[in-house]
Amino acid sequence: MAKNLAPDSTRRSEKSRRAIYDAALALVGEVGYPKTTIEGIAARAGVGKQTIYRWWSSKAEVLMEAFLDLGEQASREAGQEPYAIPDTGDLAADLKAVLRATVDELKDPRFEVPSRALAAEGVVNEQLGRAFVAKLLEPSLQLYAERLRSAQGAGDVRPDVDPRIALELFVSPLAQRWLQYTGPISHEYTDTLVDYALHGIAPR
């Protein structure tokens, strides 16, 4: 007689977690952060509220984790390590490569819709805004700063330059243009940002 196999709880949990991620990101993109609820996420994911509360204490935690997972998925699909900046010895090429990948992510509807909703809510919701910066932005900014410090050690960046200020020369304009629709974002645009940041705009 065939032995009855017990359900794989690990596989079931991962399937539920993935469904919750997808539901949370879809809802925040469709109705905005304020109208997204744990109840709505649970209904859309086909799970009970208690399942969500077993893993997260609030919708903000669900969305942040879902968003982090989305970024990791995009990196894997692009054949990159999540939150990685290459160090080939060519600072300009490394920065351009990462910013081009960022443009591709920002233009991906899977990422763009929920990220705009979260970014907009973060402007008026201080708690969410702080979490957005700490969990989503700060890890990337730290890596840019580390890459610039490495370039300082190689003599490619002046030793008196503050990496945390310098990275804003190419990161901030891209974020502002994307958030405020002040112009198109493209690989050519971010390449130009890097050239201007590294070489300035005065005659050479």
Number of helices: 10
Rounded mean pLDDT is 87
| Topology order in helix (H) and strand (E) letters | HHHHHHHHHH
- Beta-strand level of the residues, as a percent range? under 5%
Largest sheet: none
Total number of strands = 0
Measured distance between first and last alpha carbons: 83 Å
Class inferred from helices and paired strands: mainly alpha
Shape: elongated
- Extract low-pLDDT stretches: 1-7
Helicity, in percent?
Answer: over 70%
Rg computed from alpha carbons, rounded to a whole number of angstroms: 20 Å
Describe this structure in words.
There is one protein chain. The protein has 204 residues and is an all-alpha fold. The protein has 10 helices and no strands. The protein has helices at 9-31, 38-45, 49-55, 59-77, 91-106, 109-124, 126-153, 163-166, 168-180, 187-199. Helix 1 (9-31) crosses helix 6 (109-124) and helix 6 (109-124) packs across helix 7. It starts with 8 loop residues before the first helix and ends in a 5-residue tail after the last helix.
Quick gist of this model?
The protein has helices at 9-31, 38-45, 49-55, 59-77, 91-106, 109-124, 126-153, 163-166, 168-180, 187-199. It has 204 residues and is mainly alpha-helical.
Outline the fold blueprint:
Layout: H1 9-31, H2 38-45, H3 49-55, H4 59-77, H5 91-106, H6 109-124, H7 126-153, H8 163-166, H9 168-180, H10 187-199
Which characteristics define this entry?
about 200 residues; mainly alpha; 10 helices; about 0% strand
